[in-house]
Each structure stands twice: as structure tokens, then as C-alpha cells.
Amino acid sequence: xxxxxxxxxxxxxxxxxxxxxxxxxxxxxxxxxxxxxxxxxxxxxxxxxxxxxxxxxxxxxxxxxxxxxxxxxxxxxxxxxxxxxxxxxxxxxxxxxxxxxxxxxxxxxxxxxxxxxxxxxxxxxxxxxxxxxxxxxxxxxxxxxxxxxxxxxxxxxxxxxxxxxxxxxxxxxxxxxxxxxxxxxxxxxxxxxxxxxxxxxxxxxxxxxxxxxxxxxxxxxxxxxxxxxxxxxxxxxxxxxxxxxxxxxxxxxxxxxxxxxxxxxxxxxxxxxxxxxxxxxxxxxxxxxxxxxxxxxxxxxxxxxxxxxxxxxxxxxxxxxxxxxxxxxxxxxxxxxxxxxxxxxxxxxxxxxxxxxxxxxxxxxxxxxxxxxxxxxxxxxxxxxxxxxxxxxxxxxxxxxxxxxxxxxxxxxxxxxxxxxxxxxxxxxxxxxxxxxxxxxxxxxxxxxxxxxxxxxxxxxxxxxxxxxxxxxxxxxxxxxxxxxxxxxxxxxxxxxxxxxxxxxxxxxxxxxxxxxxxxxxxxxxxxxxxxxxxxxxxxxxxxxxxxxxxxxxxxxxxxxxxxxxxxxxxxxxxxxxxxxxxxxxxxxxxxxxxxxxxxxxxxxxxxxxxxxxxxxxxxxxxxxxxxxxxxxxxxxxxxxxxxxxxxxxxxxxxxxxxxxxxxx
Length: 665
Fold this sequence. Notes:
By secondary structure, this protein is of the alpha/beta class.
């Protein structure tokens, strides 16, 4: 109201001051001539009356003008809402009942004439108002209506009820047709280039000791299969090395290859050498790169990952992660003495340049870890460097071996905790990680991050997470154990007389543990390593003592066996009582002795909480691939996983689901 008065005062003539002046003149005239004063008073009275009527008339005209203007604005607003070019609809949030919608909205829904009695679900079955209740102003994703795709924006509006009624809420949604834009976006994504690198895994082994004619035939057979595989993608393929091909195609073709499970991997097995060796290939695919160069780098990383996992598989690498396909076949030994010699020389240089050497394995270190660490200590001693083994002396599976090593004068102060290593390490210290390549599994992740010089020696198949930027990476998934790899390094760097007897026995115990006394995952190189250690003084009787168990562990192991059940050729035991990791692993080994069992798995609660899985295999079941679905890792014949916060029943159900997916997928 005050604002209206101010507005009126601004537009009305200012008569008040003039009337006051006239009244003053009329009053002054009384002193000179009362007749003149009377005339002036009459004039003032007439002016006052006229001013009042004129002001009323102006107010009436102003009111009529404002009312007319408001009416025009209201008409324009209503007309704008009805004829707004974007579809609009107002509906109740609680039941999606339509309150109002413009003709454009009902047109896109195919409703003629418009109906305000229906629900949004009658026109768009996939519609939901949950996003509005969550405070969002845009529908998550796109909605498709009659073949067109829309991006929906909206808000919740509070409406005041008359006569003091309760306030109500309604939602208003605006629909933006983005079909053409979305088609362009999808076409852009579908036409992005994907780079694949195909590697003939066993090129040297397949063409070894064959005639020139047979070599040409084998090459031609593999070339033809690679070209047939690439032909359907309408890309181009070129061989850029004797055993490598580069293949570029569009993103839209990748889905078909995934659905076919990269048929080239199985088809190439048809190519066989005269000696009976089947050809194998690995495929590395790089996608989502910012450029062709980056996609090629992704493909190169992917194929190296495939080879480090045993080959005969496909790996897809994008900017964030790896995806694995295949890799279930038996690993074939392809490494040579040349690589061991190169790795030995590189490790020797790293140790020579270091101020001190720290050796660290995975959490809950076993005989293979400690045995390999003692071998690295031998190399460091030969190079005149002090070496320390970082291990948890309270939580490990190698207590007898650690106790035996600590009785030696050379190893009296060798074992240190992670905190002690962090305190004494400097910028020139070298960290050698053995028996694992995953940063989350090492004894101390802080120590791994603190030291810049890192060497990795591992025999497990590489997982998606691995230690990056290592100065040396001796990774051989074909080896039986990490002790086998370290013994090959010793053969290149030290004399047999430089190896302590306890060190030889420690490494032989590690090999015996991982090969189950030379029954699984053994190759010619495994026996060569064992023979070398035997010549270095290892006593097999002492090794047997290191592998012995106490009576309590033996009884616990057989209690686990009593709970075993068969599922699709896999023996599964799930004890409810907390178990030691080493006992569960031994029980899994024992289950493999049952006739008809291809693999065994023990799902058990640990003493420190949580659920773990220990898996073993002697058949065609690749337990590393199987447990990888549960976040675990290992190799084809031995693997493990941690189930996080799941209880025992949930863990078993997830394991059964992973087994079904492995066999049926």
C-alpha cells in the first residue's frame, strides 16, 4: 500500500503547495480589503474541490490502466505456457497424477486430445519422480518416448491452499529432445578407434627344429587365422614384427569380439608343429585413449599383462582398468636362460649401487617367501652389501625356517620390522619384493611407497593391480616358485661355495612347498634348480623337517576335510571355526588327493576376523581366473582371496556363483 501511495505521488501534479500559498494570500488580504479576501477564499475553495475530483479521476484511470496491463500480462503468460515450444507437464509428486500439461507434451506422448486425469506412467511407463525427491533438477539418464530421447529437467513447487488449507506440492518437468545430439554422440563413441596388438606367444618353440617349408606353412596358417579374425571388423591389420600384429578397428566391433570370447585364441590352437606343440596367441586391446598413440600404448600394456599372466588370453586396457578374457589353459614354459642372465646382471647392478638392501614378501610370509629372501641375502653378501628381511615375526607361515636362519650368526640381526626398515632406510636403499607383485599384498605398503628403488621377483600371474615403475621386474608365471627364480639368479651371480647350507635348504623348502613335493607346476627348470641347491649342500631330510606340522595342526586339517562337499567337480570345505591360513592351505592340498576332484577350495574364518578362501587345482580348472572374480589372485594351480566383510554363508554363496560363472560363462 505504501508503495502505491508513493507511486501516485510521483505521477500527480503537486497542488498542495500552491493551495497553501493562496490561503496565505487570502488571509493577508483581510488586513487590507475583506471583499478581496472573500474572493480569494472562494477561488481557493473552488481549486480545492477541483483538485479532489481531478485526483479521483486520475486514480480511477490509473487503476483501469494497471488492471488492463495485468490482464494482458496474464493472458500473455497463459498463452506462453500453452504454446511453449518445449513440452511441459505439472504432476503430483506422490502419485505422478498429471495436473496440467501443454499441448506439446501430449503431442510427444501421442495423446490427442489432452487428458489431465491420467498418471505419468500411463504415457511413460519408465518414468519416476524419485530424482525430484532427492533434490535433483535433472532426470538421471535419458527417457525414450515413441522413438525419441529426451533429457528431463524439473523442480518441485509449493502451492498455498486458500482458506488456510494445508500447503501442497507439485512438480514441473521440462522435456528437451536430444535425439539428434544423442545419435551424434553415440556414433562418435562407436566410431572411436580401438588398437589391438596380437602376439604369437610361442613363436620360437613352435618353429624350433622345423624345415624352411614347414616354417613357411606354420607362419601362413597363423597369418590366415589372424586375418580371418580381423576381417569381420572392417579394420586393417599389419604384421610389424616376426611374431606381432597390429589391428585397428572401430569401437562398435569390440562387443562382438567379447561375445565370441576372442575366438582367435581357441582357433589358433589348430596350428600344430610336427613335434605336437600347439600355437598360442595373446591379444592386448587399447581403448578409450585420447589419441591413437595412447590407445597403442594401452594395447602394448595389455598384451604385456596377458603374457605376464601366462599368455593364451586377451586383455583389454582403458584409462582406468584391465579386463581379462580366457587364460584358462595350462601354462607352457617358455622362458630361457638368457632372460635369467639378463635379470641377474641387472639385479647385481642395482645391489652394487645401493647403500643397503631390504627384502620384503607378502603378508603372512611362507617358506617360498623367506627362502627367496635368503637367496637375495646371499647375492647382497657377495656384493658386499648389508641385507635385511622385512617380515612379521608373529604372523607368518615359516616359523621353523625363520628360527633356523636366526640361529646363524650371519642372520642374527637380519630380520627387521617394517617400522625399523622405514626408520633406517635412505634414498639409496634398494627394496626387493619377492613372491608378490601386488602393492596391497606386501608386508608393508608404506615401505614400498617410501623407497624409490624397487625390484620385483614373482611367479604369480599378474593381476590388474601391480607394482608400477619398478627398476627391475623379473616376472615369470611359468616358474613353479619364486625360489626357483632366485636359484637361477644365484647360478649366474655366485659360486656354490658362497651359498650357506641353510640358505640352500630354505630355497629347496620353498620349491617343495609350492610344487607339493614336485607333483604340480614342475618343469625341467624346476628340477635344474633343485639339483643346483642339492649340490650347494641342501639336505632333503632337513627340508622335510621344515615342512612338518605339529599334531594340533594335523588334527585341525582333518576336521576341515570332514566338512568337504563336491560341487561340479570341486571339493569345497567351509569350517565354522577360525583356522590358521597354513592349515587351511594344507587342507586344500589334501582334498586334491580325492579321486575325481579337479580343484579344492577351503572357505574359512581367520583368527583375526574376516573370511578367506584357499584354492588348489590339479586339473583343467584355473583357480586364479576363478578367484579373480572375487578379488583374489595367484596362479593356475594355487590361489587365494579375501572376502571382506561378508560372513561365511554369504562367502560360500558368492564362491558358488563364481564357480557357475566360470563353467557357464
